[in-house]
Queue: 2 jobs
Job 1
Amino acid sequence: MPDPDGTGPWNFTAAITAGGQSRRFGSDKALALLAGRALLDHVAAALEQCPRRLLVAPPGRYTLPGWTSVADTRPGEGPLAGLEAALGAAPPGWVALSGVDLPGLTPAYWTTLAGARTLEALSVQVLDPSGRPQPLGALYHTSLLPRVSALLDAGERRLRLAAPPEWIVTLAPPASGDLRNINTPADLAALQDPAG
């Protein structure tokens, strides 16, 4: 069922998590340049069609026109806490969650994920080459908020536990998006290299 809410493929809230420390990168990777634009701008451009757009980051760190800043509810607790903040700030429905370090995602990628939603699903995730669902660059339903909060309250930080496996729709990597994660300057260099 490609459109369970009946309002079109872009009937979800965009959320970018940008609260990390960028330790492995060595500087603020959100502002690192790829093809002359900051990684944050690349990620935001892929989600511009969303009617609601949330940037989960420390207050005042970044400015994105048309995006609403949302404070991380549990600073330093990682992407699961970023998801909690996004689910709490979004209206009921679906949230597209991306890290600031996924500049290869495209509008077509998100359209593909939106089309894979079902009435029973609570998350849509792409499989990596080893067949493992990837929890970033994924869709989550806001009804997961109590589960996510309970996981965090129990000391859990793994984003991949946000949705029970039986409620996750998985799909092969769409040709329209590159899920490579930028964690180090070498990762960025490989993405800039056409042979990388």
Note: The chain has five helices and nine strands.
Job 2
Amino acid sequence: MKRLFSTLMALVTIASVMVIGAPAAQAAGSCSGTIIYSQVQSSGLGELVIYYNSSNGGTNSACFYHRGAAYGKSAPTFVQIYRCAERSGEGAHCTRSGSADTDSGDFSYHAGPVGVTGVASYCVEAVGYIGWAGERHQIYSRRQGC
């Protein structure tokens, strides 16, 4: 019994070292910085927020937060951000330039952060939604940060 316990403890120690020693996944952005766009969905269940940080040639990140009755409740949640080809025209739809960063799943508080870099002189667009009571409650930011 003592030998079994020692073996189990050794395995737990090795597993702990492997997890702690593994590098953390790097998010493309963070839900922080200067807020350049924020909109609460008309149902009051979600809010799309876009942040800007001047690092890496300009970084925009986005998060879609649960609000109201959805706060703290697990629900399908999605957020995506991408750089636009346009450099002006805030508020209009954009032509996507390059790849998008996306986060989705069943979350209780928010989806994201997602981010794009090298956007210092470009617009970005983000979209987010929460699935609630069989409906998709969605927000498109259109061009922002131009």
Note: The first helix runs from residue 2 to 21.
